[in-house]
Write a structure and sequence with these properties.
Number of helices: 22
Distance between the termini: 35 Å
Shape: globular
Helix content: over 70%
Number of strands: 0
Radius of gyration: 24 Å
Order of helices and strands: HHHHHHHHHHHHHHHHHHHHHH
């Protein structure tokens, strides 16, 4: 692998990762503020009021943003800036027309949409508030697609963070002024409007210049459609989950709103974690485009990236599942008592997420529309069937489990196709070693922190502020113990070899603070790794 390219893609990944982490921190504070001010029942109504918007947003881009990202990435790697401009202008015309229609639907038919999708007619005025969002969302989506494709990580990251800042500031101002549900919904809408306008300004330098090239609009639209259909089917499945949950909880009155609020609290936090994971994978498509353009072996790159992301993301995922009760309590408060259970059931999707993002980027670069379409259709069928069965058997818990398992199904299908067609390999032994080290590390940290909790005075546990501080401190302690133990165990059993460690060091060498931290962990790992390998060789001799 080209070391310069690897360092560059790592630099972008870390910018996206830190920006997304900062965005998630802001988002978590926003969720904490809104959910605690509104309470579980009103928070449930807040999420229900967004269901019509999110349903219509499934039709908001028809796959054109994915096509814009792919075509712009490849064109940029070839220094073909004219095609980048052509793709953006064509996409903007299509999406503006489409989303204008969606905005008018929310404005003209809010009551009908509220009744059909949520069984709550009182939400129509909140639905009307969201009417401008589709147009703003389309502009924002095009902006971040172009910025990611041309590898302008800084501006894209700024848009990510700015959206969160605008939302929390506007939420505080509006809710403090006495607008509770209205303020929460309006802050969501305002955040999209602001970043959409700024995003278009950021993109302007990349869509200037000569207009003397041609864009195969039919092929472009075909690729967009191939990306839209699986995304649309998955989106339909996600909306079916929300609608099924709304119908299931509607007869329960206030208890139903409480359950819906808890479910969406867990869903929002899962989404936040997946956003961080996804941001780290954002540069993969441009990177793999460079690999193909330079005649390098993209298949071997996919294998190595999958292995590295497995070793780095799996411990975080299992840690989140082990400590879901503390994580949810710290973010939302103790009133969201059902959310940790929902979070754990949904969280199984975290365990295979790295497979999905790597192989999805690979198939897009290879222009393999067949598997993208097949995956969407198969995942939709699996999800619908499992949703019906599980929701009938275990109600809302079954709906939460569906959210996790249909994503796992999608990731595994991608992996199986990659192995069958492109002869990619997955190192099962390394995966088992990673999983073993992760589970043992989490068990050790969980045991230690649980023992510490036993010595905490009762009055601290009953005090909301004391409980919040205690759980926050224990989470940080548990994370440190888990990380250190994981590094030791992986080194002892040889979970990563010399090539893996060298790859990780190259990836993070250009980022000062993270590079030093990774360098410290890498040195500790290698010291233990070589000590045990040397002893093993002596015993063999």
């Amino acid at each position: 692998m080209n070391e310069e390219q690897l360092g560059h893609v790592s630099f972008q990944a870390m910018i996206y990762g830190f920006a997304t982490l900062l965005q998630i921190i802001i988002q978590v504070f926003t969720m904490m503020y809104i959910s605690r001010i509104l309470g579980p029942e009103l928070y449930g109504l807040y999420n229900l009021s967004l269901v019509p918007l999110t349903f219509l947003l499934m039709f908001s881009d028809l796959g054109f943003n994915a096509a814009l990202f792919r075509y712009s990435s490849i064109s940029h790697s070839r220094k073909d800036y004219c095609t980048v401009k052509k793709a953006f202008l064509f996409t903007s015309k299509v999406l503006f027309t489409l989303n204008l229609g969606l905005s008018l639907s929310l404005l003209v038919f809010p009551g009908e949409l509220s009744i059909i999708l949520t069984q709550r007619s009182e939400l129509s005025r909140f639905v009307m508030l969201t009417s401008i969002t589709p147009i703003a969302s389309a502009l924002f989506g095009m902006s971040i697609s172009i910025l990611a494709a041309v590898e302008d990580a800084e501006k894209r990251a700024l848009l990510q963070v700015l959206q969160g800042l605008v939302r929390i500031v506007s939420a505080v101002l509006l809710i403090s002024a006495g607008y509770l549900l209205e303020g929460a919904v309006a802050s969501y809408v305002v955040s999209y409007i602001v970043v959409a306008l700024i995003g278009v300004f950021f993109v302007k330098p990349y869509i200037k210049g000569p207009d003397e090239c041609s864009l195969d609009k039919i092929e472009y639209a075909k690729f967009a459609l191939s990306m839209f259909i699986p995304g649309f089917l998955t989106g339909i499945l996600g909306r079916l989950v929300s609608i099924r949950l709304a119908y299931t909880t509607a007869p329960l009155g206030e208890l139903g709103n409480y359950m819906f609020g808890n479910f969406n609290a867990a869903s929002a936090f899962i989404g936040a974690v997946l956003s961080i994971y996804g941001s780290l994978a954002t540069p993969l498509l441009p990177y793999l485009s460079h690999q193909l353009a330079n005649g390098n072996n993209a298949v071997r790159s996919v294998e190595r990236l999958t292995s590295i992301l497995n070793a780095t993301l799996l411990p975080l995922s299992v840690f989140a599942l082990f400590f879901s009760d503390d994580v949810i309590s710290v973010v939302y408060g103790v009133r969201y008592g059902l959310a940790p259970g929902y979070f754990t059931l949904m969280g199984v999707a975290l365990l295979t997420f790295h497979i999905g993002v790597v192989y999805s980027a690979f198939f897009q670069v290879m222009n393999d529309k067949k598997i993208i379409m097949l995956n969407g259709l198969a995942t939709f069928v699996f999800g619908v069937v499992f949703l019906e069965i599980s929701s009938s058997l275990i109600s809302t818990a079954g709906i939460a489990l569906t959210v996790g398992l249909y994503q796992v199904f999608s990731h595994i299908l991608y992996l199986a196709y990659g192995i069958a067609k492109y002869k990619t390999r997955i190192e099962a032994l390394k995966t088992l070693k990673t999983l073993f080290s992760t589970i043992i590390s989490c068990l050790i940290s969980y045991t230690i922190t649980s023992a510490i909790t036993g010595f905490v005075p009762t009055h601290t546990l009953l005090n909301p502020i004391g409980l919040f501080l205690l759980r926050t401190a224990l989470l940080l302690l548990a994370f440190v113990i888990t990380l250190q133990t994981y590094v030791v165990l992986m080194a002892v059993i040889g979970g990563l070899d010399e090539v893996d460690i060298a790859f990780i060091e190259k990836m993070f060498s250009r980022i000062r603070f993270v590079g030093r931290f990774v360098d410290y962990l890498a040195k500790a790992y290698k010291k233990i790794y070589y000590a045990f390998r040397a002893r093993a060789r002596r015993e063999t001799l």
